[in-house]
Write a structure and sequence with these properties.
This protein is mostly helical and 108 residues long. It has four helices and no strands. The radius of gyration is 24 Å and the shape is flat.
Length: 108
């Protein structure tokens, strides 16, 4: 009786155990690569793509101008806060939609 209960519990939490193993493996891989690369700086895909276009065309980056000029925030903190505000508004909208759908299912 006791052994059957532990086997049932092992199958019950299989997905959770696999998720924990995946998260730990990802963290270990991230920490390993972070410590093994010295002086590496993250550059976004926009920077890499514009550099590649400049190399392929033989034109310097200063000669490229966007079709629609973009406003750049005066500091990185303002840019981060605007991004956080955008993420919060998106989370509220997605949560509201899912909440509405769940409420409609429970109502019916």
């Amino acid at each position: 009786m006791r052994q059957g209960l532990t086997t049932k519990m092992a199958y019950r939490y299989t997905l959770e155990i696999l998720a924990v193993i995946a998260v730990v493996a990802f963290c270990a891989l991230f920490l390993y690569t972070e410590t093994s690369t010295n002086g590496a700086e993250f550059a976004g895909s926009d920077d890499a793509a514009s550099q590649l276009v400049a190399n392929l065309t033989g034109t310097s980056l200063e000669n490229f101008h966007p079709v629609i000029p973009q406003w750049e925030p005066p500091s990185g903190e303002i840019e981060s806060s605007l991004f956080a505000l955008q993420a919060a508004i998106g989370g509220i909208l997605v949560g509201g939609i899912f909440g509405y759908w769940i409420g409609q299912k429970k109502k019916a």
